[in-house]
Amino acid sequence: MEGVRVPLACALLLFVVSSIASAAIVEHTFNVQNLTISRLCKRQVITVVNGSLPGPTVRVKEGDSLVIQVINNSPHNITIHWHGIFHRLTVWADGPSMITQCPIQPGHRYAYRFNITGQEGTLWWHAHSSFLRATVYGAIIIRPKSGHSYPFPKPHKEVPIIFGEWWNTDVVALEEAAIATGIPPNNSDAYTINGLPGNLYPCSKDRMFNLDVVKGKLYLLRIINAAMNMQLFFKIANHKLTVVAADAVYTKPYLTDVIVIAPGQTVDALLHADKSIGSSYYMAAHPYASTPLVPFPNTTTRGVIHYIGGASKTRRTKRVLMPKLPSFFDTPTAHRFYSNLTSLVGGPHWVPVPHHVDEEMLVTIGLGLEACAKCPNSKFAASMNNHSFVLPKKLSILEAVFHGVDGIFTPDFPNQPPVKFDYTDPNITQTSPGLLFVHKSTSAKVLKFNTTVDLVLQNHALLAAESHPMHLHGFNFHVLAQEFGNYDPTRDRSKYNLVNPQFRNTLAVPVGGWAVIRFRADNPGAWIMHCHIDVHLPFGLGMVFVVENGPTKSTSLPPPPPDLPRC
């Protein structure tokens, strides 16, 4: 008997119906409120979502739609950013305050509506207004749609590992004082794993993350660095991990005994539980400090992995082994990890590198000073191409773009720094002190739809040479190359990886070095690119790409939703 032949039109209809049926509308309510909790021997009022730290995990499948109603019952203005989500034609839901929306004021609400398309893996959400991100954050887990599988063995269990930072103070007041004085805020008092500091901190013996595992099973660790300011080294004693994704993009499997992760980044790693029943091992994280010149909190957070089994299925811990973490200043180890990750060519949602480039930019990033006539000293500042970004106050940039309102931003962000100099020379300001002073502006770079951009991010050392984790909203970018020193196009273009480079949304630019990224501006809207060290963004280390509409309605910016918050 011959097989039944289905007409092409019917087959296409069945495919469409099947695709629609496999997608779902996932709804959440986020109640933003204050909560008093005990940490480090102190009672502290913090702002959280739904009464928990971290906040709720959003679990979806690729192709689903999300509707998240955010109700602001806190005393602070708030927005939520869905970090790494593309937001194709849903840019009004991206969330950065005064870029795509005015903040949700106390007593008000806003429904974020967006689709999950072409993405699988681990992303996360967080506050994008003031230092509230310190306690307002949570995971986004995107699994393959029904009928599809991971490009690696199916894990027995998936475990979010979310790093954070904790302050024994009001973080909003901390930021306000820093902006008013131009002095960076105090360092955090602890790091945390899933909201818990671990037993190396005072009054924290019982406030430590515990993970029970079964020998012979495979676990997928969904690792997120939600820390405000620090890159982190992470290890598990006597275990290796296999990295299989970064920033919700599948990678070629990479075996390592240490994970290095910058603020804003995510890493998915497989853990093979291959030790003896009854044994226990610490997982631990402490800072990677790219420069010894900048003070940092040199403490360690840790949790415990317990191998359970036998009749009782209980923990039988005698001695817990601690991993040997790299030195705080181990730049070679950090660079080796960051530069060895590559994309999984041909894997789900793999995107090849575009070869034709329309626009080339060289952007210097780093710290400087703001002249202040009424201050005893100059204020601390940060900039990109000497433009120190200032958020607008009357209207969001996206609303100004859509309604054609002038005076909110200027479309003059430069393709090159105003002055060329030896960017990585720490002594350059002795002969050219004027390089230190930044230009305050709300400037944007306007791109035509579908423009392919090569962007060289060059760290400078005017105040201190640092590694800066740079995050681009609305896009992933290919990381073509990253090295130390000054970028030289004649020498360094031959080093580009055009075959299987990382494809991600957040990149730690090497300390005293550079990175080249390439992205296609095929998503109309206003998209901020900024340093994900939160002590730097309020001082100006950011800029905005305005991507113009495409030729059709499906490639053009939609009108704002009716419940968009007003300033």
Automatic annotation (TrEMBL):
It is an enzyme of class 1 (oxidoreductase). SUPFAM superfamilies: Cupredoxins (SSF49503). Keywords: Apoplast, Copper, Glycoprotein, Lignin degradation, Metal-binding, Oxidoreductase, Repeat, Secreted, Signal. It catalyses: 4 hydroquinone + O2 = 4 benzosemiquinone + 2 H2O. Belongs to the multicopper oxidase family. CDD domains: CuRO_1_LCC_plant (cd13849), CuRO_2_LCC_plant (cd13875), CuRO_3_LCC_plant (cd13897). GO terms for cellular component: apoplast. Its EC number is 1.10.3.2. One of its GO terms (molecular function) is hydroquinone:oxygen oxidoreductase activity. Pfam families: Cu-oxidase (PF00394), Cu-oxidase_2 (PF07731), Cu-oxidase_3 (PF07732). One of its GO terms (biological process) is lignin catabolic process. Binds 4 Cu cations per monomer. This is Laccase. Lignin degradation and detoxification of lignin-derived products. InterPro entries: Cu-oxidase-like_N (IPR011707), Cu-oxidase_2nd (IPR001117), Cu-oxidase_C (IPR011706), Cu-oxidase_fam (IPR045087), Cu_oxidase_Cu_BS (IPR002355), Cupredoxin (IPR008972), CuRO_1_LCC (IPR034288), CuRO_2_LCC (IPR034285). Its cofactor is Cu cation. Residues 1-23 form the signal peptide. It is found in: Secreted, Extracellular space, Apoplast. NCBIfam families: laccase. Residues 32-146, 158-309, 412-550 form the Plastocyanin-like domain. The keyword Hydrolase does not apply. It comes from Brassica carinata (Ethiopian mustard).
